[in-house]
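Quick one, probably user error.
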């Protein structure tokens, strides 16, 4: 199927019939064929997209793994606290600071002295707080130190300013002082 200009050129003898047929074939290929140079860029884009997807999948997998480890750690802490918590059936309100708020636990006299010495520790548990012994507290520290609310033994180890400590040694506070 030739256009009228090609027919006129053939009749005039300016173009051979084989040359006209070849031009028609090339034009048909150009209209219906695949463009060669444009094929390289989608392959590069596809590779780049595949690499981006793989990196995004790795990041999501790492995030899921971190979340699973955090959940596992919380479950371990919950299990340690449940297994080692002490009964609190005392009548003395023991006050402590938790995130800037003063909280109270009812303890007996022996528990209060153990808390003061650092043999017992107060830990966050679900919506409340529990008392656990020192060995269990060390296990909780190993997993997440933020769960420990009050630990008088570690507080004295990390003590504050030495100059202040020396100054306040002059003023003894009685052990039986109850607020």
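Nope, works fine. Designed sequence:
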């Amino acid at each position: 199927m030739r256009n009228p200009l090609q027919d006129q050129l053939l009749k005039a003898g300016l173009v051979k019939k084989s040359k006209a047929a070849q031009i028609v074939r090339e034009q048909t290929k150009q209209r219906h064929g695949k463009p060669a140079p444009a094929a390289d860029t989608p392959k590069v884009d596809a590779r780049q997209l595949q690499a981006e997807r793989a990196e995004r999948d790795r990041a999501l997998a790492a995030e899921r793994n971190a979340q699973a480890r955090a959940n596992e750690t919380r479950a371990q802490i919950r299990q340690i606290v449940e297994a080692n918590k002490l009964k609190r059936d005392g009548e003395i309100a023991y006050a402590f600071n938790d995130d800037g708020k003063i909280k109270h636990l009812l303890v007996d006299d022996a528990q209060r002295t153990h808390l003061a010495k650092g043999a017992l520790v107060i830990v966050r548990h679900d919506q409340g707080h529990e008392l656990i012994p020192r060995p269990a507290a060390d296990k909780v520290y190993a997993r997440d130190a933020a769960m420990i609310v009050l630990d008088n033994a570690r507080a004295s180890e990390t003590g504050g300013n030495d100059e202040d400590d020396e100054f306040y040694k002059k003023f003894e506070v009685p052990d039986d002082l109850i607020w």
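The mean pLDDT is 84.
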